[in-house]
Amino acid sequence: MSHPAPSTTRLFSHATAQAPGKVNLSLRVGTPRVDGYHPVASVYLAVSMLEEVTATPRQDGEITVTLSEQSSAFVDPDAIPVDSSNLAARAALRLREYLGRDPQTHGVHLEITKQVPVAGGMGGGSADAAAALLACAALWDAGLSRQTLAEIAAPLGADVPFAVMGGAAVGLGVGDELTPLLARHPVHLVLVPATTGLSTPQVYGLLDQLREEGGLPMPEADPEVDPQLVQALTSGDAEELALLLANDLQVPAATLVPELSEMLDVGLEEGALAGQVSGSGPTVMFLARSAEESFQLAARIEDRTGVAAVAVHGPVHGARVL
Ligand SMILES: C[C@](O)(CO)[C@H](O)COP(=O)(O)OP(=O)(O)OC[C@H]1O[C@@H](n2ccc(N)nc2=O)[C@H](O)[C@@H]1O
Ligand SMILES: Nc1ncnc2c1ncn2[C@@H]1O[C@H](COP(=O)(O)OP(=O)(O)OP(=O)(O)O)[C@@H](O)[C@H]1O
């Protein structure tokens, strides 16, 4: 892939971009493909828990990463690589290659401020990649559409295109084939992040194992999105949405972390409309009727368990330059 350099290049001293974490209101998973990935039918919702990346040019061609001290208490800095394997660094490298910029002179330093828990099932690393892509695109005056940026980002992870696009969307394929949804009514949620993460491949692997052993039913067909859930989301019917939340990864995640089931019970006892593990977990999410109820629910869960709970809403915008 290559893209011609623009004839005039604006000079930025730095550029900052934000990208959202996500939850899956519904995540249906099929049987693994030959490449090990699973076909999914996902209903993504971008939520008001944002990652921020500031990109500053480096003339020596290096792509470097640091983690800001402003990052949230949910984030264990030791769990995040700050070498070339960091998803933000990989996004910057992919964009530089796509644009055909000189690797000797077009380096960048990326400072990441994380709010989204690491390996929490909320696509935090994917949001870092999306924010880094937008920040570097601004720095290097890339002149690319959001759609093109999402395509450049897709090989970095199944959730990365959604972090670029944001809002609410159906995700097919491995989650990267997106159809935006016109969800104009806010969904109010409470998120309970865990301090330790779960490995996404391990959770998918345990789902396969449970299905093969007969502990869970084998899916009969490729996964599909429930049109009633899409209807409930687009019409803002929280009570109906509560009945239709689904996540095939919940049983394997709760098998690996049994406390998740207890946390789900606590949220329901404290008045949540519904509760579910987010993505591959271990973050747990609860649905509330309104913003006010979400704040009250978060406070009650914190009081009862001593575990931090955060009221958020969605859909929010995808990655954008500030
Ligand atoms: C659980 C979800 O967050 C739901 O949105 C995603 O499916 C995972 O997205 P992600 O973390 O961006 O995933 P990637 O970084 O692309 O993949 C990590 C690993 O998860 C597994 N994986 C991921 C996506 C998918 N559709 N099937 C899979 O089996 C694969 O073992 C893969 O090696
Ligand atoms: N910028 C980054 N932020 C967080 N993790 C990163 C980053 N770059 C690489 N990683 C690695 O990716 C792994 C998954 O992190 P991430 O926070 O994206 O998980 P997740 O939210 O469970 O992802 P998903 O919901 O997309 O499966 C981490 O364990 C970490 O080793």
Question: How would you describe what is shown here?
Answer:
With about 325 residues, the protein is α+β, with helices and mostly antiparallel strands. The chain has 2 domains: about 15-180, Ribosomal Protein S5, domain 2, CATH 3.30.230; about 185-315, GHMP kinase, C-terminal domain (Alpha-Beta Plaits, 2-Layer Sandwich), CATH 3.30.70.890. It is about 35% helix and about 25% strand. The protein is built from 10 helices and 12 strands. The protein has helices at about 85-100, 125-140, 145-155, 160-165, 200-215, 225-235, 240-245, 250-255, 260-270, 290-305, and strands at about 15-30, 40-60, 65, 105-115, 170, 175-180, 185-190, 245, 275, 285-290, 310-315, 320. Strands 1, 2, 3, 4, 5, 6, 8 and 12 form an 8-stranded mixed β-sheet that branches. A 4-stranded antiparallel β-sheet has the order 9-10-7-11, sandwiched between helices. Helix 1 (about 85-100) links the parallel strand 3 and strand 4 (about 105-115). Helix 1 (about 85-100) runs parallel beside helix 2 and helix 6 runs antiparallel to helix 7 (about 240-245). It is globular and about 55 Å long. The model has no long low-confidence stretch (mean pLDDT about 95). It binds 4-diphosphocytidyl-2-C-methyl-D-erythritol (CDM) and adenosine-5'-triphosphate. 4-diphosphocytidyl-2-C-methyl-D-erythritol binds next to strand 1, strand 2 and helix 5. This is 4-diphosphocytidyl-2-C-methyl-D-erythritol kinase. GO terms for molecular function: 4-(cytidine 5'-diphospho)-2-C-methyl-D-erythritol kinase activity; ATP binding.
